[in-house]
Amino acid sequence: MFSKTIRAFSTSSTSLKNIKIGLIPGDGIGREVIPAGRAVLENLPSKLGLKFDFVDLDAGFELFQKTGTALPDETVKVLKEECDGALFGAVSSPSVKVEGYSSPIVALRKKLGLYANVRPVKSVEGIGRPVDMVIVRENTEDLYIKEERTYKAADGTRVAEAIKRITETATTRIAKMAYDIALKRQAIREASSATGLHTSPSVTVTHKSNVLSQSDGLFREICRSVYDANLGLYDSIAYREQIVDSMVYRMFREPEIFDVVVAPNLYGDILSDGAAALVGSLGVVPSANVGENFAIGEPCHGSAPDIEGKGISNPIATIRSTALMLEFMGHTDAAATIYEAVDANLAEDSIKTPDLGGNSTTQQVVDDIIRRF
Among residues 159, 249, 355, 371, which is most buried (max CB within 10 A)? Predict the structure, then answer.
């Protein structure tokens, strides 16, 4: 995805110290795909010099239904004090208000300072549309601050309101991450003899400032000012802007033109899920929740109750998220090993889960990927 030039928390990919990973399956098929991430880590070639320990942690809507707590304090404490990184599976999201419940992954992002959600969306030859983009989503604010209220208007009808918060601080750091990723992707392209969709880097700032002139207007303004203030560093990057509704249209009509896309929380969430349709399935799209010194790999799919327990959930999004987590931790050789094995699996037609048109089980896909290390 970003390979050996991504900004990382550690500079060595051959550290002999044990790496402790928190495993948070969550709900539904999260309990089926997180073991896939663990299996991949346990079976990495010994020459990479990595050894993993694991700790099982609780979170999720089903836990909330049993205990009244979706994110136990102990889970956060262990992640902060003991773990080097983590994998999160999936969380069920009730469509109606449930008193006292809020999403544990949203809470984790805030408690651990994971201000960026990074979602690479890349096609494999012969599967879906030609796509090679990274959506960089601000992870801590916008409408997801969950400051809502419902009240009665003068005529007795109910009114619901939600606060959309955009800050200069959060926008500055997410803009810098997007520009840095664009530069690093370009460095990888220049170092490789392979041809790709992009010959030069670009960042597309997505917003709706024509309507939301203050909130989205600030996001747009700060993204531009960060670019202008660092022209000596970012001058090779083409700066672009796109209103979010036309962004959706263009992303489906001509996805090949987008390199790095940066967006506020809500738009980034929608765009990244939509982009998954371009590459065959949500089951192949990874993400990482990233802060200054911690990363949580998280597949983009949900808890998928319709296929839970059938053994056919696609583990590739989790396996790629595992590699992405390693990348942000600085273990780029291990990440590359996983990416190459996944791409080799996808390039063949024989072993695929039903969401990709095959009839293989989750475990068969995991086994096939591991045998390619």
Answer: 355
